[in-house]
Design goal:
globular, single chain, mainly alpha, 7 helices
């Protein structure tokens, strides 16, 4: 599986955007755009994956399934994070998840 930064970089390039162009479209919680240097650090995996707020924007702008970015960030998507489920259900879900990812192409997330 590619890293968070590799996915962002690959999709940005496929969209024909420079780092500066993408950085101006992604805004922090205060409404100000992220810096091109911050984006460069993300793409080179020199920073931890960003906040939920930024992950959602990257997903939207670059047409990436948000779940892919959450996975690469080591996070659960908010849509499932606070569900009231049993330990057994969690174990079963991850067992099924493992089956699915073992049969997929590791770079499939970047080929859309």
């Amino acid at each position: 599986m590619p890293t968070f930064g590799e996915i962002i970089s690959e999709k940005r390039k496929k969209a024909g955007l420079s780092q500066k162009e993408l950085a101006t479209r992604v805004t922090k919680e205060d409404g100000k755009p992220i810096s091109p240097q911050y984006l460069n650090d993300i793409e080179r995996d020199r920073r931890n994956p960003p906040s939920e707020h930024l992950i959602e924007q990257f997903a939207s702008i670059l047409s990436i399934a948000p779940e892919t970015l959450y996975y690469c960030a080591g996070e659960l998507p908010p849509s499932v994070r606070y569900e009231d489920v049993s330990e057994r259900m969690i174990a079963e879900a991850f067992k099924e998840f493992r089956k699915v990812i073992e049969r997929k192409d590791p770079f499939d997330c970047c080929s859309a």
